[in-house]
Amino acid sequence: MEKEISRMKYAILDIETTGGKYNEEGITEIAIHQFDGNQVTDQFISLVNPEKEIQAFVVKLTGINNKMVAAAPKFHEIAKRIVEITEDCILVAHNAQFDYRILKTEYERLGYDYQRKTLCTVYLSKKLIPDMESYSLGKLVRALGIPVSDRHRANGDALATLQLFKLLLTKEEDHKSISEITRSENTGILTNKQVDLIDQIPNETGLVNFLDKEDQVIYILASDQLKKDITQLFTRQSSVGKSVNKKMRQVKVTRTGSLLMAQLKCQLALLKFRPKYNRIPSKKTLNAPLILNYPIHDGIMIDKGRDTGEKGVYLIKNNKLEGIGYVALNYQINNTPILEQLLSPVIENSSLKKILINGHEKKPLKLQPFEN
Hints:
Blueprint: H1 2-6, E1 9-17, E2 27-35, E3 40-47, H2 56-62, H3 66-69, H4 75-86, E4 89-93, H5 96-109, E5 117-120, H6 121-128, H7 137-143, H8 154-171, H9 176-181, H10 192-199, E6 206-211, E7 217-223, H11 226-235, H12 239-247, E8 250-255, H13 259-273, H14 283-287, E9 299-304, E10 311-317, E11 320-327, H15 330-334, H16 336-342, E12 344-345, H17 350-362, E13 366-369
């Protein structure tokens, strides 16, 4: 196995796109560095005319505008070169399922079945360098002391990914993790059913309940980027993702405003619905003594709401979480009897307490003690 891996070739790539609806994006720039595990053996870098408008927020992020790509080659003009430079290579990218999907879609428009194995440096980094504060490309490479320039341009990001991959290779001499994380040619491609589902999901903060044909909740996901994380659920090819995809018939989205509220509501929902494909906290975990104190003994912790003017609220009494919910008016916050009626009652457990205290430590909430 080691000899086989050592002969592997990699194509480190990054793609910039126009933005827009899922599977309707166009490529504006691409950079590919062919790498044999020791050195770069070939490279291809080019702007691309996407034959469609680049969205304003993308122009602001990348600096690539419609005028810059007007005279650039169209994808069909560079398609053969991309096939050649990635032939017999594993595609390596930061969030590889995105770049691979974009390439697959472009080739499908040309009637060509483009298939390559892929390796995501996000997942490889998490496995080999755990406990980093962030695994976004910019923050990760800076934290590791890897120089980076031209962020959000294809070649700048591809070179940063190349240096990151070189570092990861030195940490993984037997290539076991690389073998485990490398995905087959068809991994990361969504079905039409999944695309239709994801189009309906807002890329906001909240939780999603996946229901089967009998309206039973089979999986719950809490996230501050719902569309992105649901996409990853279905493209990771995990056993959970496969099972949820097979059994689900509909989804219900609940906006929460903050990730902390989403995580608390998710824990409560897990205990209520006990979905088949989530890990449910054991009674031992829930009842375990937790020697932690809230930052307020009697009062409320105030979080972000779902809309302007609304606040998320956590009610604490005698160092116990007793209610969560939302309020929109100051007099509701300042009137304890009214506040208690507006909030949903909660029976505290160790998991809920730990989530709330950890959430406050990461991003402090406003505290308002009750007046004596």
